[in-house]
Design a protein that fits this description.
The complex is a heterodimer of chains A (364) and B (331). With 364 residues, chain A is mainly alpha-helical. Chain A has a domain of 250 residues: ABC transporter involved in vitamin B12 uptake, BtuC (Orthogonal Bundle). Helix content of chain A is 76%, strand content 0%. The radius of gyration of chain A is 21 Å and the shape is globular. Chain B has 331 residues and is of the alpha/beta class. Chain B has 2 domains: 123 residues, Rossmann fold; 168 residues, Response regulator (Rossmann fold, 3-Layer(aba) Sandwich). In chain B, 43% of the residues lie in helices and 19% in strands. Chain B has 11 helices and 12 strands. Chain B has a 6-stranded parallel β-sheet, sandwiched between helices. In chain B, strands 7-6-8-9-10-12 form a 6-stranded mixed β-sheet, sandwiched between helices. In chain B, strand 1, helix 2 and strand 2 form a beta-alpha-beta unit. The longest helix of chain B has 19 residues. Chain B starts with a helix and ends in an 8-residue tail after the last helix. The relative contact order of chain B is 0.15. The chains are: A mainly alpha (364), B alpha/beta (331). At the A-B interface, helix 2, helix 12, helix 14 and helix 15 of A face helix 1, strand 2 and helix 3 of B.
Chain lengths: 364, 331
């Protein structure tokens, strides 16, 4: 029996959580002597009030879409992949290798193969923890988080010693050639008469991310493999009894998850920076966990949550630019939202469930 | 609906006021943060001094992420901030992309050369200042072994180390210079714990003066040196006051002057290549009440003499970045 109606689960809980986070953030802003209403106005206008703001919001959202989907797929198999960060870093390496060492005639071809490269590197990075979990029972949470550090070290080594151009001080690769430049939303929308900000980094990979959303939905709810993943996630023993191999599902789910996380690099490395820098992922792998939790591991929920976090990132940047709210406090505000929507989910859920049960009992 | 409309109206008003209020200069700090007691703080000091002297205000932002480099540049440029000053070589790539799009805005980049008609590139002769503090270190050292702790291992920091080593060897050709780098990533600019460990390691090898050219990491170096009873040398800003009587001197890199001048020159400032060295007061060493007892008249005279000779070209200090090698030190 469902404890409460579906709409309450999908809409009400996230909304209440957000509200709580907003109230606390407002108190924090008040506490340092700034005006919370003006701050919210600035965040909204800065992130959603212009095509420029939307361009940045969607750029960040694209990152979170990929990592959120990655975490979601693993969630369905009851695997907690917190290695999205490292997988996305390695995905960046895949993109950089594809873009720098192969001469592409057109960006579309480059995008396809860069996506493949990114997915391949991300999946490869996820495959080791997957194997250890499936065959050796090493806990995936521990191994994936350790692999984040190893990924950072590997990237560091590669950038400093192998891929840094001669004479450069930045630990970063050379700039990718002009031919692999991904069209930005400005360039895509201009021919159909929509004026979109030229400066914003949102690019064609946002569309790739939307396609990935649909693909994940099809995979999880419309294919045999998706059924097996969900069955395994809901009951390992039941799945085993039904002839589903836990080893196979663990490894496949993690490969898909790692591949999706890796594909994030098409956005931040290929679309925005157009070169591979250290720390290009900037925590998007971890935000992906919050996005997946908030989106209830459903691609549409992930989409909405990714937009929300994109808004928080871009709005936070605007706050940093135009107010004297220090950057540490902007991180605090972002953290409060993550805390309430991700970690403190049950704080809102259980009173709400009791409320709905009580209401139902009264009716009966 | 009316609520929605008035909300949108308010939003638009805020957006407009945020955009129109700007005709002031802007300063962008690097990821190390504004109050690193070193490089970024020097830039802030210069801007602050300008604001106090002229009574004008300026815009500033501390970056949170790599993606914000270009974003901050574009936002300030579009809002009319002019000139826009950025502290740190890491802005080079972003500025190269952005400068052409805003031909009417003047940009100033410190520690990096960007070739564009509206960019002033300010570089410092850190090797010259380091040479002088190297001389002082050698004169103050009793063990004949001195240390150097760099931040991120990049040619720029090796330039500091090389000048320092040459200065040490000029006073005492038999002296040993131990050089260590904190790391190979930007995180090395802000790792005081590692700085402290490296200092202890150098002390165990006999060093009794250490020179930190490591941004925020240097705070750990200076602290440990003071705790262990040896002398240290600060960098960029005057850090003598951090541990009075324990910091031998500080190699001044007048980032504050560079920022001050840029703000003073205002929009349309003279662009191109600008070198700040000993000859024009761009680098030097700090003597104040905190370290006066440590610097004897003889040390001061020797360093001053060398400074004049470097300024006139009589002494040539090797610049590591000119040929990626150092005659006085191997890395």
């Amino acid at each position: 029996m469902d404890k409460m109606p579906k709409w309450a689960d999908v809409v009400l809980i996230p909304l209440i959580s957000l509200l709580l986070a907003a109230v606390l953030s407002a108190l924090v802003i008040l506490g340092i002597g700034e005006d919370p209403v003006a701050a919210v106005n600035l965040m909204v206008s800065g992130a959603l009030g212009s095509t420029y703001g939307w361009g940045y919001t969607l750029y960040y959202a694209t990152n979170f879409l990929f990592t959120g989907l990655a975490v979601s797929v693993a969630f369905h198999a009851r695997l907690f992949n917190i290695g999205g960060e490292g997988q996305a870093m390695l995905g960046g390496l895949g993109v950089a290798i594809m873009c720098l060492y192969i001469d592409w005639p057109h960006w579309s071809l480059a995008l396809i193969f860069a996506s493949l490269g990114a997915a391949l590197f991300g999946a490869a990075w996820a495959s080791i923890p997957a194997y250890l979990q499936a065959k050796r029972g090493s806990h995936i949470v521990i191994t994936t988080i350790m692999f984040n550090f190893i990924a950072a070290a590997v990237l560091n080594y590669v950038l400093v010693n192998l891929m840094r151009p001669e004479g450069s001080m930045d630990p970063a690769t050379a700039r990718f050639p002009e031919t692999v430049h991904l069209p930005s939303l400005h360039e895509i929308l201009a021919p159909i008469g929509i004026e979109f900000s030229k400066a914003a980094p949102a690019n064609v990979s946002f569309i790739v991310a939307l396609v990935a959303c649909v693909a994940v939905w099809l995979l999880i709810w419309r294919t045999k493999l998706g059924y097996e993943i969900r069955a395994y996630g809901n009951s390992e023993h039941g799945a085993l009894y039904a002839g589903i191999s836990p080893v196979k599902i663990t490894i496949i789910a993690m490969l898909i998850s790692g591949g999706l996380a890796g594909m994030m690099a098409t956005n931040n490395v290929m679309g925005e920076a157009e070169r591979l820098v250290l720390n290009s992922t900037e925590g998007a792998g971890f935000i992906g966990i919050a996005v997946a939790l908030m989106g209830r591991s459903h691609p549409f929920g992930v989409f909405l949550a990714a937009i929300l976090f994109g808004f928080l990132y871009q709005g936070g940047a605007e706050l940093a630019l135009w107010t004297s709210i220090p950057r540490e406090l902007i991180v605090v505000i972002q953290a409060l939202v993550i805390l309430f929507t991700g970690a403190l989910d049950n704080m809102v859920r259980s009173p709400l469930e009791k409320l709905f049960l009580a209401m139902r009992r009264e009716k009966a | 609906m009316t609520v929605m409309k008035s909300l949108m109206g308010a939003v638009a008003a805020v957006a407009l006021s945020a955009g129109a209020a700007l005709a002031e200069p802007a300063l962008i700090f690097d990821l190390g943060g504004k109050f690193d007691k070193s490089f970024n703080e020097a830039a802030f000091t210069g801007a602050q001094r300008w604001a106090e002297e002229t009574g004008n205000s300026f815009r500033e932002i501390e970056l949170q992420s790599e993606a914000q480099r270009e974003q901050a540049l574009r936002r300030f440029a579009e809002a009319g901030a002019n000139p826009i000053v950025m502290a740190g070589f890491a802005f080079g790539d972003a500025l190269g992309q952005v400068a052409g799009d805003y031909p009417d805005t003047s940009f100033v980049i410190i520690d990096m050369v960007v070739d564009a008609p509206n960019v002033r590139s300010v570089v410092f002769n850190e090797h010259e200042g380091s040479y002088l503090v190297g001389m002082l270190a050698a004169k103050a050292s009793k063990s004949g072994t001195v240390g150097f702790i760099g931040g991120m291992d990049i040619p720029l920091i090796r330039k500091f180390a090389c000048g320092y080593a040459e200065g040490v060897k000029a006073v005492n050709p038999d002296a040993t210079v131990i050089a260590n780098m904190t790391g190979t990533t930007p995180a090395a600019w802000n790792d005081p714990v590692k700085g402290s460990e490296l200092t202890k390691a150098q002390i165990s090898q006999g060093a009794d003066v250490v020179y930190a050219a490591a941004g925020g990491t240097g705070v750990g170096v200076l602290q440990t040196a003071a705790d262990e009873g040896i002398l240290s040398i600060g960098v960029d800003s005057n850090q003598n006051h951090l541990h009075p009587g324990k910091v031998l001197t500080s190699m001044l890199k007048r980032v504050d002057n560079a920022v001050f001048e840029a703000f003073q020159d205002g929009p349309g400032l003279e662009t191109g290549f600008s070198v700040m060295g000993l000859s024009n007061g761009g680098v030097g060493f700090a003597v104040d009440d905190n370290n006066a007892p440590l610097i004897t008249a003889e040390m001061q005279a020797a360093a001053d003499e060398a400074a004049t000779k470097i300024a006139t070209g009589e002494i040539k200090v090797h610049d590591y970045m000119s040929d990626d090698s150092c005659p006085a030190l191997s890395f």
